[in-house]
Specification:
Oligomer: single chain
Structural class: mainly alpha
Strand content: under 5%
Shape: elongated
Radius of gyration: 30 Å
Largest sheet: 2 strands, antiparallel
Order of helices and strands: HHHHHHEEHEHEHEHHEHHHHHHH
Strand order of the largest sheet: 1-2
Number of helices: 18
Helix content: 55-70%
Number of domains: 3
Distance between the termini: 50 Å
CATH superfamily of the largest domain: Fumarase/aspartase (Central domain)
């Protein structure tokens, strides 16, 4: 009988990201910081070089196990104290005397967090680049594929499916930029003691912090309390929530375009094996997109915790500790998962240009009302008069369920200005897509270069 509770353990998430947030990996990040701290103390002459080398060598899960740390924590009721005791057990000679020297727990935890963030963001960035590439390919492939645009759920003037994909590709590109910008403020650690003064580290406190961060490839928090400023974590949460929101936006569009009455695109569906409904045999539901939408909402809700944690009592309280054990791994694992799923949807997307064409034809030319209005303006009619004239004609066409052309041909004021051939050309969707193809070309060029 399985005792698993969290869906991350058995349903959602990729191994690559889960490994980063596993107990073993977390312990290894913490130990890496302890090892770097010992090296720094040795370099400023606080402890013997041999002792530092022994601590650094043993600061690994090859020597310190998660199981042993947990055993000690049952007694100490303190995770970092348990870690230092477990590390001391495997260090030989006098080295054990110098473990964790001058540091507070969150010097180790927050610096380890930065290492974890660095690795996790690399995975997400790579996945976003893969998605961006998929969208660029779709933009190129469907650059000329005309479909109805829609605003407020209503049909509008034509767009191309390629342009829609180019818009999404640029949005993904902005998220890659946000990640890299965020990293400048996020990938920082601290070795500055109980309230950030570095008192226990002695006269070399600043140098010790600098050496540790250089060893680990991080920047140092310029001024801290007992913890790294949680405004940094709130920014991270915001970036992840923003990415998740874009994925839900894309997935929602696929779901809407897959509606039976629209039917212009659809998720891949294994017709030989896949079941859409337990009771309705005909169903082919957009289940992956729906999963993305549901999980994106979880990411956004969890990101709120990061903002709450930024509020601390004095130099810090412990409220952030327990909640960060939830929101950080969950937000990373779920965000990575929904990007991965979104890329899978777009990579296997079924696109139906003929249905797009059918929907345009079924619209009886009514969505081309703007094109007619602009034609009349070119012929000398005032813009507001042209708008009102075409508005009346378009509404009449809708109410009577007839083509816009049939109504326009009967308008004397229009007949004075334009010929029937000119009207027909203005009602041709292919003649009214503006710079759509050019924009796709520009996006493809930019993102192929990036």
């Amino acid at each position: 009988m399985s005792n698993l509770v969290c869906p991350l353990d058995f349903r959602y998430g990729r191994k690559e990201m889960k490994d980063i947030f596993s107990e073993d990996s977390k312990l290894n990040y913490l130990l890496e910081v302890e090892g770097a701290l010992a090296i720094a103390h040795a370099k400023v002459g606080n402890i013997p070089k041999e002792a530092a080398e022994e601590i650094a060598r043993k600061s690994s899960t090859k020597f310190v196990s998660v199981e042993r740390v947990k055993e000690i924590e049952k007694e100490t009721k303190h995770d970092i104290m348990a870690l230092t005791k477990a590390l001391a057990e495997v260090c030989e000679g006098e080295a054990k005397k110098y473990i964790h020297l001058g540091a507070t727990s969150y010097d180790i935890v927050d610096t380890a967090n930065a290492l974890q963030f660095r690795d996790a963001l690399k995975v997400i960035e790579d996945e976003l680049k893969e998605l961006r590439s998929t969208l660029v390919n779709l933009a190129k492939k469907y650059k000329k594929t005309i479909m109805l645009g829609r605003t407020h759920g209503q049909q509008t003037i034509p767009i191309t499916f390629g342009l829609k994909m180019a818009v999404y590709a640029m949005e993904v590109n902005r998220h890659i930029e946000r990640i890299n910008d965020c990293k400048k403020r996020l990938l920082v650690g601290k070795i500055s003691g109980a309230v950030g003064t570095g008192a226990a580290l002695g006269k070399h406190a600043k140098e010790i912090q600098e050496i540790v961060m250089k060893e680990l490839g991080l920047k140092a928090e310029e001024a801290s309390t007992q913890i790294v400023g949680r405004d940094r974590y709130a920014e991270l949460a915001g970036v992840l929530a923003n990415i998740a929101t874009s994925m839900e936006k894309f997935a929602t569009e696929i779901r809407n375009l897959q509606r039976s009455e629209i039917g212009e695109v659809a998720e891949a569906f294994d017709v030989k094996k896949q079941v859409g409904s337990s009771t309705m045999p005909h169903k082919m539901n957009p289940i992956t997109c729906e999963q993305i939408c549901g999980l994106a909402r979880v990411v956004r809700s969890l990101s709120q915790v990061a903002y709450e944690n930024a509020i601390q009592w004095h130099e810090r309280d412990l409220c952030n500790s327990s909640s960060e054990r939830f929101w950080i791994p969950h937000c990373f694992i779920l965000t990575d998962w929904i990007i991965f799923q979104m890329n899978k949807v777009f990579s296997n997307l079924r696109v139906f240009p003929e249905r797009m064409k059918e929907n345009i034809e079924r619209s009886k030319g009514i969505p081309m009302a703007e094109s007619v209005m602009m034609l009349l303006v070119k012929k000398g009619l005032a813009r507001d008069k042209a708008h009102e004239l075409v508005r009346r004609c378009a509404i009449k066409a809708q109410v009577e369920n007839i083509s816009l052309l049939d109504v326009l041909k009967k308008e004397k004021e229009i007949n004075k200005l334009v010929s029937e051939d000119e009207l027909k050309r203005s009602l041709d969707p292919e003649s009214y897509i503006g710079r759509a193809e050019e924009i796709v070309d520009e996006v493809v060029k930019k993102l192929s270069r990036d």
